[in-house]
Amino acid sequence: MRYEIICALMTPQRLDDSFLLSLIISLMKEDAKYWIALDYINGIGDVRAKTLYGRFKSAEKIFSASENELRSIEGLGEKILRAIRTFDDWDKVGEELDKIRKSGAAFVPLNDSSYPPQLLQIYNPPPFLLMKGEVTPGDKISVAIVGTRLPDKYGRTVTESLSGELASLGVTIVSGMARGIDSIAQEEALKRGGRTIAVLGSGIDVVYPPENGRLYEKITKSGAVVSEFRPGTPPVAQNFPKRNRIISGLSLGVVVVQASDKSGSLISASFALDQNKEVFAVPGNVGRKLSRGSNWLIKKGAKLVETVDDILCEIEVLRGLRDGDAGEAVPIDLTRLSDREKTVYSFLGTEPVHIDEIIKSSGLESSSVLSLLLSLELDGYVAQHPGKLFRRRF
């Protein structure tokens, strides 16, 4: 409908930049209104919001959907259905829109072209982000570096070395702009002329810690500061574990430099595993509390990191960075595969595909497809994502 409105209004007499800009802003604000309203409804978390988006493709259509259309959504109970159909707290939504406007942040919902595509692939992406700066297509080549808020000299040195070298190779550094390892990693990336993305555990207008005000501003100019929380949200403890799924979701892998056995960095590592991302850890002195978390990760199978090459060789798209050919296809030998494995593999691409689609396209029995995908995954040809999604690794 909105496309038709724009086309109808784009006459030669009315086609000027100021008019189009005001029209686009108006339409974006209208869309934002419904996403915020959805956020106010109890029981609609990230997963249900993603499900609703997958069905209706816009928040406005969710609110205009018929009762039967909403009932067809699996897991949407009567209470939530009724809350959507009867929502009328638009004054509160309007107040929230004013706060967003005053914050100067861009409103980026799931259906916006600016929404990071890598984040869309996780099980529970935030329904919308507030963003200062921008996330570019090149930011898909990214690595998260996280760790303790109280690093020692060893931790600082290792972080500066890893972050600086990755940034100089064109890798975007993702972190939480927290004190310690996070801030060091992001400062070093900027010093090397690289890009970095900061994911906040507070509202987009709440700089935490306060002393990172200058870092915040620098990141908006050479990357992005993002938050899923409404403006004014304080940096309370329960926000940070939730924030960590975005840090790992934006990244190809997560590097833990120094962490105690109760560090929030271990939560980021856990999310990375759930999202089928690589997990790395820098070994530390066995007698130090700061090493317990990172050493434990290594014992559990995280890749031990001594130099940046340990990261580059583990993530496929980074392997060619030393020679300047990151992202190029890696030659593989398909002659080792059986005819049935080749058939299944041929229906996969670089973007995840649901198993039902693979079964339908291949014409094979579901049990056979599951067995073949498992074999391909064990041999390193296929990667599995949450939700029975599969893609080629090469």
Structure, described:
- It is built from 18 helices and 12 strands.
- Mean pLDDT is 87; it is low at 1-28 and 325-331.
- Strands 1-2-6-5-4-3-7-8-9 form a 9-stranded mixed beta sheet, sandwiched between helices. Strands 10-12-11 form a 3-stranded antiparallel beta sheet.
- It has 3 domains: 2-103, no CATH class; 137-323, Rossmann fold (3-Layer(aba) Sandwich), CATH 3.40.50.450; 334-392, Winged helix-like DNA-binding domain superfamily/Winged helix DNA-binding domain (Arc Repressor Mutant, subunit A), CATH 1.10.10.10.
- The chain has 394 residues and is an alpha/beta fold.
- It is globular and about 60 Å long.
- Helix 2 (17-40) packs across helix 7, helix 9 packs parallel to helix 10 and helix 16 crosses helix 18 (366-378).
- It starts with a helix and ends with a strand.
- Helices cover 45% and strands 12% of the residues.
- It has helices at residues 2-9, 17-40, 46-56, 59-64, 67-71, 78-86, 90-103, 117-120, 153-168, 181-191, 213-221, 239-249, 265-274, 292-299, 309-312, 339-346, 355-362, 366-378; strands spanning 106-109, 128-133, 142-146, 172-175, 196-199, 223-227, 253-256, 278-281, 303-304, 353-354, 382-385, 389-392.
Which class best fits the helix and strand makeup? alpha/beta
Termini gap:
40 Å
User: Given this structure, which CATH class of the largest domain is correct?
Assistant: Alpha Beta
What best-fitting shape do the alpha-carbon axes yield?
A: globular
The profile of the biggest β sheet is:
9 strands, mixed
User: Regarding quaternary structure, how should these chains be classified?
Assistant: single chain
Second-tier CATH architecture of the largest domain: 3-Layer(aba) Sandwich
- Give me the CATH fold name of the largest domain: Rossmann fold
Mean pLDDT: 87
Content of β-strand: 5-15%
Helix content range: 40-55%
Strand and helix order: HHHHHHHEHEEHEHEHEHEHEHEHHEHHEE
